[in-house]
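(Structure overview)
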Amino acid sequence: MSKRESTERAATLAILLSSHYPRGGAYRIARLVYDMQAAARSAKSWEERRCSYPMDEATESRGNRRIERTQARINVVLASQGLEPSDPLEGLKHENPARIELGGDPRGPCGTLHIPGLRGDGFGDGFGVY
């Protein structure tokens, strides 16, 4: 994927998130999109290593836990109405939060953003994060 395609995808994801989180703020949404893209790249790298190289059970378990922790951290932010879970004024829970899934086939995007009420972009259910 080229830098231009990644930038265009970031803009698309930011527009989708800003319509779903109107109180999110431009900086918070941009930071979240950056974090999601970095997590998807990390998940893709992990899935490629897992498919290409033999590894013991402990290494595989450690890598899977890292991806799950990253996914959980981003989903906590997505559950907040203002995309800032530590801010007491904006830390209200979103009634229908978006969520991200990391992992999958490394030949495609290894991150998927699910926004309730939106169908997706043709790469299956949700929007590919890459």
Observations:
- The chain has a mean pLDDT of 88.
